[in-house]
Amino acid sequence: MTSSAIRVVEEEVTSGRVVYALLPPHHPRHFTSVTERGGIGASFTAHRRAVRGVEGAPLREADIAAGDAFMMSSGNLEWLQVAEPSEMWEFHPDPLFVERVANELGASRSVSLPDLDGRPDAVIWSIATWFRARLARGRSVETLDASERLRALVAHAAHVYGGVASRRQRAGTLDARRLTRVVEYVDAHLGDRIALEHLAEAAALSPFHFARCFRATLHLTPHQFVTARRMECARQLLRTTRLSTGEVAARVGYTNVAHFREQFVAAFALRPSELRAGASGP
Hints:
The chain is of the alpha+beta class. It is built from eleven helices and ten strands.
């Protein structure tokens, strides 16, 4: 991401570069930004009728849902008109790193990833969420955990979108159908008690097997994933409603408001009251 943004946190890592950005509304006469070619990332904010385009191609105007994933392979993606403030995370891998991961998966050819201009992808979202929590708090991501997740991100992109078939990639992970059912169950029951058994049932697996496959797929435990989805929902409620912090906490399954505040700060590096005070931002 290249821009004069409200806030941009970039860190060079062994495998490439990670970027976390908070951006103001976009307009060609005032502000635009560019997602550089080769990036993989996710938007944490929803946008209506966002106008963007890849070099040499017609402009596209379409809605973006919070959590939508993006990949740019054919060229730089220029964001020209976005009415709302934006929050996003991107990984710009070294091309040699992409080829190395593809070779480890057993690719017999050079990997060609397609453009992905806004699509729900729980794996990309989960990995992006893990990095955001650290970059937003000023923590370095040049760690073994980060390296494993970036490798998993590229392997996921190569397998799901690049057509690299790999038994190693599929073994012990949730297929897209099971994962979709689990994500839909979580989002529909954020205010309820969600037990491991409920998620395992949605995936039609035993709790033990499900927990292991879920962690291998999203690189978050089921508990971490549910917490992340609850925090995203809470943030949206705080920005768009007049519900009190206690009411928002209850809506996303927390009876202990102090614990809710702790989880919120851990996710976004600010308190619920601070978010509400600056509700016009991301």
